[in-house]
Amino acid sequence: MSFLRRRKGSDPPKKSEPSDEIPTDKIEPEDDDDKEKKRRRPDEEKKKAKWSCVDTCCWFIGLICSTWWLLLFIYNAMPASFPQYVTEAITGPMPDPPGVKLHKEGLSAKHPVVFVPGIVTGGLELWEGHQCADGLFRKRLWGGSFGEIYKRPLCWVEHLSLDNETGLDPSGIRVRPVTGLVAADYFAPGYFVWAVLIANLARIGYEEKTMYMAAYDWRLAFQNTEVRDQTLSRIKSNIELMVTTNNGKKVVVIPHSMGVLYFLHFMKWVEAPAPMGGGGGPNWCAQHIKAIMNIGGPFLGVPKAISGLFSSEAKDVAVARAIAPGVLDNDLFGIQTLKHVMRMTRTWDSTMSMIPKGGDTIWGGLDWSPEEGYECIYKKQKNNHSQVEAATEMEKVGSRPSRAKYGRIISFGKDVAETHSSEIERIEFRDAVKGNYMAHSNVSCGDVWTEYNEMGWGGITAVADYKVYTAGSVLDLLHFVAPRMMQRGDAHFSYGVADNLDDPKYEHYKYWSNPLETKLPNAPDMEIYSMYGVGIPTERSYVYKVSSSTECFIPFQIDTSAEGGNEDSCLQGGVYSVNGDETVPVLSAGFMCAKGWRGKTRFNPSGIPTYIREYDHAPPANFLEGRGTQSGAHVDIMGNFALIEDILRVAAGATGEDLGGDQVHSDIFKWSEKINLKL
Amino acid sequence: MAPVLRFRRMCVEPVKFSLGVGAEALINSNNKDQHLSSAAAAADLSSRDGKKERRKAGKEWRCVDWCCWMIGCTCTTWWLLLLLFNSLPASLPGFPLPEPPGVKLKREGLKPLHPVVLIPGIVTGGLELWEGRPCADGLFRKRLWAGSFTEIFKRPLCWLEHMSLDNETGLDPPGIRVRAVPGLVAADYFAPGYFVWAVLIENLARIGYEGKNMHMTAYDWRLSFQNTEVRDQSLSRLKSKIELMVKTNNNKRVVVVPHSMGVLYFLHFLKWVEAPPPIGGGGGPGWCAKHIKAIMNIGPTFLGVPKVVSGIFSAEAKDVAFARAMAPGVLDYDILGLQTLEHVMRVVRTWDSIMSLLPKGGEAIWGNLDWSPEEGYNCDTMKKHLKGSLREEFGPTNSSDGKLGFRVEETVHYGRLISFGKTASQLPSSELLTVNYEELSQAGAARKTKSSCGEIWTEYDEIDRESIRAVAEKKVYTARTILDLLRFVAPKTMRRADAHFSHGIADNLDEPKYSHYKYWSNPLETKLPDAPDMEIYSLYGVGIPTERSYVYKLSPSDRCKSIPFRIDSSADGSDSGCLKSGVYFVDGDESVPVLSAGFMCAKGWRGRTRFNPSGMATFVREYRHKPPANLLEGRGLESGAHVDIMGNVALIEDIMRVAAGATGIELGGDRIYSDILKMSERIKIRL
Fold it and tell me: Which of B22, B208, B211 sits opposite A179 (nearest CB)?
């Protein structure tokens, strides 16, 4: 203490220190006086003032950077098993991943595995582009980090759009699917799609030579993937190669989401004669495919697709929304963003493959639907109630006045959605004059083009006056509001139910992806699984309103003010929901395997065995679990341990019977019964 | 200057203030006393303010703060520059980038016609982990080879363990599965920013190529060629891919573009695909004629590379030049002393594919004690390049082989691939001891094993010092005897190699033994397929000194874990000589000597020979090396170096023209700068 006092007290030594150290810093040579001190101080103050803001910023940034690097370093230096250790310390020991568990059981790779990714999840990369996309050669435009959306949004939209007439590449732009397992293992960094399944398969000995990702451009109509990229031929050749190089073991195909329809198309294509088909002959499927394990398959379409095409508000692009909510929902451009999205998605023919199929027969009419009486209480739903219980509950619900009329896929106004059909006044819209006063305003709407601009007010009111649309009439609606798009759609897809499957017209490729208009191949040893999550409210029908804003916007909007009243109602924010996996209603995912193809039917002439495997949704228990190991959601189900285990067992040689046959939590069998379809 | 000074000051000054709060309070009161006594009230006020600020500053702006400040500044500036760089237009108006060949040819109207198959060479292809030991946790499907190589630094031993193959079988060690990365990403970039195939791919894409008519053959380049089929069915996959591409592209035959060792791999494939199953692909005798239009070999290693000899012998080769260039620290670092090299040697010796690159054809091709096809080569490459037409002038002196006696000091005995001591490499053969090389291989069989050498295993540990000395006493090894030497020092490796590769010259190609797969990758022991319409190109760089033979010495260290031989880097020739730090150089592309790259197309297969019974056309296209003119050019647009040539504009243009339908004659036939024709003439083998 005294030393310090002395040292500070005696001036000369103290002053000499700084002057020694900073000889050139404009500080006067040593004075014995305090004057020196006074002169120096303002000097210093000035310097301090200079540092103030910028320096603090720099300091702050530096601090953050250093801390970040330090953390990063520690994270990197940490043993890889550390996070798992922490998780186990908190939540108790985790179950072994299915791969490890089954490896211990002695399972090993047997049948080669083919993945067919769905819509949206596959990566797309640029091969040729316009000026604005310079430097993006072979960079991912879709999937990955999506950095380009933020950097050059219009350029991005331009490159991802297809030609509105042909549904193929616009001139000067080539965007192609990424190939290999990387195409869809992760959708974005850290957001797995197939990665978990791949990792688990690898544990029992699978590798690149026994796993194949059938990547295709999911924007194109299915037949166009063959026309442009020969994708179907490649899949055929790869499957043949895998079968020959694996001692003739047939492949297990695992399509997900829209990949299910794509693979249906493939199976018809491969046996059809060239040039339209692959010329594989009538036994190709029987010789090459052991099982098809459809995950979350929208066999009969998804109602979401309609709202998506109608007003681009669907959560069909749910993944994209989840990843980049800012882009789609941002109000920076108002609904212009949505309009851009609409313009882009309407050029994607593949979205039309998911329009509900089978019309009123499957999806219900004005006053009837297979799911009616469904109670939207998801907590209860999770308990395994028996048939009897469910039946009594149904009666109970039946007596309720606010029973959801799911058959009305689009209704204008909540009251319309609920009243009985005899009380609704409907005005035919199909012949309505679209009017053309908006044709002039085309220019004022800028370059954002949607077909709504050509429709006119008359058309819009006509649409709204028809009030209620069922699965059948909704097609007419889409024809009315988006004629060009539906023209392409009609050339590639069909949505009906076949009366006579032997009609020669059904040889056309547009029927191939509709399970209600095709026969399954002649392959009695093949197995078809339908695996999907249940227990999540899923969009089923919509309450719409006419948008109040000016003509440059999309004229229809989901009426988010329409609420069902109490919490348990199926109507939330203008959307009636039903049991499903968040995207695909149970009806669409399960019907074909539960009834349409069960046994020997006209859709399944060779009697291929079918199995339904439902996985009850359980949200992740805590934050550390990530997206959960028991999830039933459309994409997250790919990380569901039970599902992965089923797939691994089948890939290692088990049959559906070995797995335990059907595993049903929902009312799918009851609902299927209600559907009156000639089999 | 100023910031540095400030920094110094701030770092030193705060020491006074960092003595603690108590001390500061004291200082404060102390100062106060002083000022009360000496200055006016106004001055006092201002000084007090100053003091407060200063005190604050003292608390905040310490050394750490200054570090933070510096880092912050640097980061901000860096980000700002990055932002500017990103918002920069692709080509500055001042520096117009040279037009890529793809753009030029697109304007000429070229369109994709023939599908293209790319076959990467050794080292350049990526490898990823599919199953590993616990130490490699979290690396599932991450690249172990190529990419960022971070794992080398993080867990070097684990990395080496996973990169090794089993030393007995040459296949996976138990519990480890490392597999080739598939797709174009396998070898487009070796490391971020270091292109291999990327430039070629981009240019092909400009005239319309894309995934469906461009295929990258991914194979595990560590395995022997036949083993890639046994383990991964790589050859079957390649066959199926080619068939598919031909079928989906209107029956247009493929143009194959192999690079480096990929050339040998594809030679193997040519034989494999037509051979009957089970060892072959069963494509039948017309398969190549039906599916292949042209093979455009880039930097081909047809007859092997001398580098590999030193690589296997003492792990000093620059065969792994790439790896060295990318991670010099790992290989040359002295922290572990030569241990690193030994680790590398241990790993490399398990890679059977390396053995495919040993010089083939023995003394007939590579020269013997007194003679070599390249002798008389003038190593003053610069001079030679300035006067390209000088070739004629060299002619007379070189052709008179017998009269070279008067230049004996300058004549390099390239035939002596390894000599112990500089003198041994220069003596006329009559003064060398005549020795029986057979002894070596016999000695190899009867030697003792030592087990004292710890965990680092190289086969040198099993050889006792006397035999090592015996090796050195033999003084000189040629391309023939070098094989005996290697069999002696690395018996296990060579045992596997002999099962998969052969390095001789066939006397009678119709002998049934040549249907064995081990001969398929040696162009001197196989016939080309019967495909008279096919074309074979040899495209390679010239004008870079390339390792050809070595001067060795015994390693001074006697430690048991060390490699007993080393290149004698003190051996230097005269200024213009071919000998530099223990290595004799010759013309080539830095890895492959001209002789190996060009001989087959210049002579061995030229016309209708016994190696090329159907007389398919061959073309030699040489590209003279020109280092990049400035920094903007990166690795050069006219480079001739083994890998950098993949960015050579002229080469890319040639490939694109052929892919778009041109023939070799339309390209202009041969294009030769080196002495390859003359060298080939001197090689006397029966054709």
Answer: B211
The arithmetic mean of pLDDT across residues B633-662, rounded, is 89
Q: Strand, helix or coil at B140?
A: strand
Q: With cut-offs at 50, 70 and 90, classify the pLDDT of residue A314.
A: low
pLDDT bucket at B314, cuts 50 / 70 / 90:
confident
A425 vs A344, which has greater pLDDT? A344
Distance CA B265, CA B124 (A): 14
B642 is catalytic: yes
Query: What string of H, E and C letters represents the secondary structure of B156-181?
Result: HHHHHHHHCCCCCCCCCCCCCEEEEC
Of A137, A208, A245, the CB nearest to B202: A137
* Tokens 């493959």 belong to residue: A353
Distance of CA B286 to the CA centre of its chain: 34
* Per-residue pLDDT, A295: 94
CB contact under 8 A, B184 and A9: no
> Which of these, B234, B241, B229, B325, lies nearest to B278 by C-alpha position?
B229
Complex ipTM over 0.85: no
Which residues are CB-contacts of A427 (< 8 A; sequence separation ≥ 6)? A462, A465, A466
Six-digit token string for B509: 């190609």
Q: Does B80 touch chain A (CB under 8 A)?
A: no
Q: How far is A596 from chain B (nearest CA, A)?
A: 36
pLDDT at residue B274 above 80?
Answer: yes
Helices assigned H by DSSP within A423-481:
437-441, 456-465, 473-481
First-last CA distance in chain B: 73
CA-to-CA distance for A546 and A543, rounded, in angstroms? 11
DSSP 3-state assignment of B242?
Answer: helix
The Cα angle at residue B280 between residues B312 and B271, in degrees rounded to 5 = 65
Cα A365 from Cα A367, distance rounded (Å): 6
Closest residue in A to B39 (Cα–Cα): A34
Q: Is B314 a catalytic residue?
A: no
The whole-number average pLDDT for the span B675-681 is 89
B1: which chain A residues are within 8 Å (Cβ-Cβ)? 24
Q: Distance between CA B506 and CA B508 in Å, rounded?
A: 6
Question: For residue A195, what are the CA distances in angstroms to B141, B203, B566?
Answer: 10, 32, 47
Residue type, A433: V
Q: Give the Cα separation of B126 and B147 in Å (integer).
A: 7
* Contact status, residue A604 vs residue A520, Cβ threshold 8 Å: yes
CB burial class (10 A; 0-12, 13-18, 19+) of residue B671? middle
| Mean pLDDT for all residues in chain A | 79
The DSSP letter of residue B589 is: B
Strand partners, B189: B195
In angstroms, the CA A554 to CA A455 distance is 11
List, for residues B71-107, the tens digit of each pLDDT value. Answer: 888 888 888 888 887 776 555 555 556 788 888 899 9
pTM: 0.82
pLDDT (tens digit per residue) in B526-557: 999 999 999 999 999 998 888 888 888 876 65
CA distance linking residue B80 with residue B84, whole number of Å = 6
Tell me the chain B residues in contact with residue A9 when contact means C-beta distances shorter than 8 Å: 30
Cβ distance B13 to A25 less than 8 Å, yes or no, reads no
For an interface test with A, the pick among B53, B60, B154, B210 (most A C-beta atoms closer than 10 Å) comes out as B210
Is B53 an 8 Å CB contact of chain A?
yes
C-beta atoms surrounding B250 within 10 Å: 7
Buried b / exposed e along A668-679 (16+ C-beta atoms within 10 A): bbbbbeebebee
Pairing of strands B583-588, B579-580: antiparallel
- Could you give the residue numbers annotated as active site of A? 257, 581, 634
Angle between the N-to-C axes of helices B234-248 and A231-245, in degrees from 0 to 180, rounded to the nearest 10: 150
